[in-house]
Amino acid sequence: KLxxxxxxxxxxxCGDASRGTLRKVLTGKPGDSALxxxxxxxxxxxxxxxxxxxxxxxxxxxxxxxxxxxxxxxPAFSYGENDVYKTFCRDPETRSKLKWIQHKLGFAIPLxxxxxIFNY
Length: 120
What we know:
single chain; 120 residues; two-stranded antiparallel sheet
């Protein structure tokens, strides 16, 4: 694990996507909310231009927690974000190395190439 990672994440008011953390946020102070990227690291590694590979079927536990805590769900989808960058995660050898890195660090680092800010 990375040194000081926990502190950096907490400064940004971020937390893991575990059942306990989500339940704690949703039952916390009035007005607290949680943003959950359902596809997570697996979906980030599958991103490539011209595709929308969503990973939802095996990620339904957050709906159950929202129902149990009486919280509202607000679905959102971002169009075109996969077209901004070209990823190098589709190659099986690269993908296996990235999965290994994901396992060791606890989060995914997709390899990507994109255009700069002032290229318009």
